[in-house]
Amino acid sequence: MSDKKDREQYGVLLYYKYAEIPNLNDLVSFYHSNCSSLRLLGRVRLSSHGVNVTVGGNLSSLESHIEALKAYNTLFHATDFKLATCHHPLNDKVAKECGFTSLSIRIVDELVTLSSHPLLKSPHISNAGKHLSAHEFHSSLHNANKESPENCLVLLDARNLYETRIGKFHVPNVETLDPQVRQYSDLSSWIDDNGERLKGKNILMYCTGGIRCEMASAYIRSKGAGFENVFQLFGGIQRYLEQFSDGGFFKGKNFVFDHRISVGSSDANVIGTCLLCQCSFDDYTSRCRCTYCRMLVLVCSSCQSESTPYVCELCQKQSKAVRLTQLIENGESKTLSGVEVQNFSSDTMCLPQVPRGDGKIQGRQEN
Fold first, then answer.
1. How far apart are alpha carbons 237 and 194 in whole angstroms?
2. pLDDT by residue (tens digit) across 267-298?
3. Are strands 327-329 and 332-334 parallel, antiparallel or unpaired?
4. SS (H, E, C) the chain
5. Which long-range contacts (CB under 8 A, 24 or more apart) does 65-68 make?
6. So what's the pLDDT on residue 302?
7. 229 versus 258: which is more confidently predicted?
C-alpha cells in the first residue's frame, strides 16, 4: 500500500539527447500519443538533432514514459533521465510561467539557441567538450592549480545572470567567469569578446542540467588552437548536488526551469540578496521581473509592490535607470549636481547606487 502511494507522488522529469533523428514526424506522433495518454504536462522540444524535454506528472507515469521512450528507439537507451519527486506547482502563475498548465510539443531548429544572430562558424555537437562526472569535476576543482599551476584552470558558468545570483560554484584560488548574460543566446557574444580570458586555459564549464554546455563548449573549441581543453559537468549542477548533498563546492541553490524554481543542498546558506534592500533573499516564487528587459529579479516580500517597476542590474549598467536616487521635493524631482537623470518614474526601483571617487556612479556589486 505504501509503495503504491509513493508511486503516485508527483514528479518532474528532465532530459535531453543529441542524436540524429531518422524520422522526426514519427517522433512527434510518439510524444503526442504517449504524453497525452499519461497526462504529462510541460515542454517537449524536438529537432532533427535530438530532443529537449521537461515534463511533470504522476511519478509512475513519468517512469512509464521513460520505459516507452527506450522501447521506441534504442537511441534513448543511454539518455541521462533526471527524475525527481516534488510538490505540485505552488500556484497557477508559477505553473503557467514554467509551462506546466499544458503539454507543448514543438519542432525547433535548435534545442537551445546559442546565438540570436547568425554565427560565422556554427559549432557541431560532435566537437563538444569532454564530459566529467560529478566526482571527476569535484576532484578537478579540489586539485586545481596545485600540482601544475602552469596549466591554469578556470570555471565558466554557462547560465543566465539571475540563476547565478542564487547559487554558484566557489573554489578558493580558482577564477570563476560569470558572463552575466540575460539569456543563453547572448553567451556566444560574450565568448567572442573574452577569448583572451579563455585561450590557453583548462576550461571547466557547468550549467543546470548539461545541455547548455554542449553547444557552448563546442563553440569555444571551434575557435581552434588554444581552445582545445574544454570540459563540462555531465548532468550539470543537478547531478553534482545529488552526489554532494552538502553542496560540495557549490554554494546556494540551483535555479531550475520548472515549477520547483530552485533546488538546494543540505547547506541552508542564502547567497542571494533583494534587489532593493540588499537583505539575504533567494526566492523567485513571486516571479518579479525587470520592467524593461523582463529578466527575473529578486525582490523580498517586504519590498514587493504591484504598482512599482523594478530595474535589474544589467539595465542599470546600460543606463536604463536613474543613476542616483531621486529626491522628491514639492512634487519635483531633483538630483545631485553633475549627474544626468533620465525621464523615469520617481518610484522606479533599482539597486542602491554609490558615487565613485572619480565622480562616476557605480552600483553595488556582489563578489
1. 24
2. 778 999 999 999 999 999 899 999 999 999 99
3. antiparallel
4. CHHHHHHCCEEEEEEEEECCCCCHHHHHHHHHHHHHHCCCEEEEEEECCEEEEEEEEEHHHHHHHHHHHHHHCHHHCCCCCEEEECCCCCCHHHHHHCCCCCEEEEECCCCCCCCCCCCCCCCCHHHCCEEECHHHHHHHHHCCCCCCCCCCEEEEECCEHHHHCCEEECCCCCEEECCCECCHHHHHHHHHHCHHHHCCCEEEEECCCCHHHHHHHHHHHCCCCCCCCEEEECCHHHHHHHHCCCCCCEEEEEECCCCCCEEECCCCCCCCECCCCCCECCCCCCCCECCCCCCECCCCCCCCCCCCCECCHHHHHCCCCCCCCCEEECCEEECCCCCCCCCCCCCCECCCEEECCCCCEEECCCC
5. 65/13, 65/34, 65/35, 65/38, 65/40, 66/13, 68/34
6. 93
7. 229
Among the listed residues 274, 252, 250, 253, the one whose alpha carbon sits nearest the alpha carbon of residue 262: 253
> Would you place residue 25 in the very low, low, confident or very high pLDDT band (cuts 50, 70, 90)?
very high
82, burial (CB in 10 Å: exposed 0-12, middle 13-18, buried 19+) = buried
Question: Taking the model in full, what pTM does it have?
Answer: 0.81
Residue type, 129: G
- The packing angle between helices 236-243 and 134-142, to 10°, is 80
Q: Residue 163: CA atoms inside 13 Å, Cβ hemisphere, count?
A: 23
Structure-block grid coordinates of residue 228: 582545445
Residues 239 and 219: their CA atoms lie apart, in Å, by 23
Positions marked catalytic:
207
Compute how many other C-beta atoms are within 10 angstroms of the C-beta atom of residue 225: 7
Name which of 300, 314, 283 is nearest 167 in CA terms.
Answer: 283
Q: Which of 362, 165, 164, 160 is nearest to 274 (CA)?
A: 165
CA 139 to chain centroid, in Å, comes to 23
d(CA 221, CA 226): 9
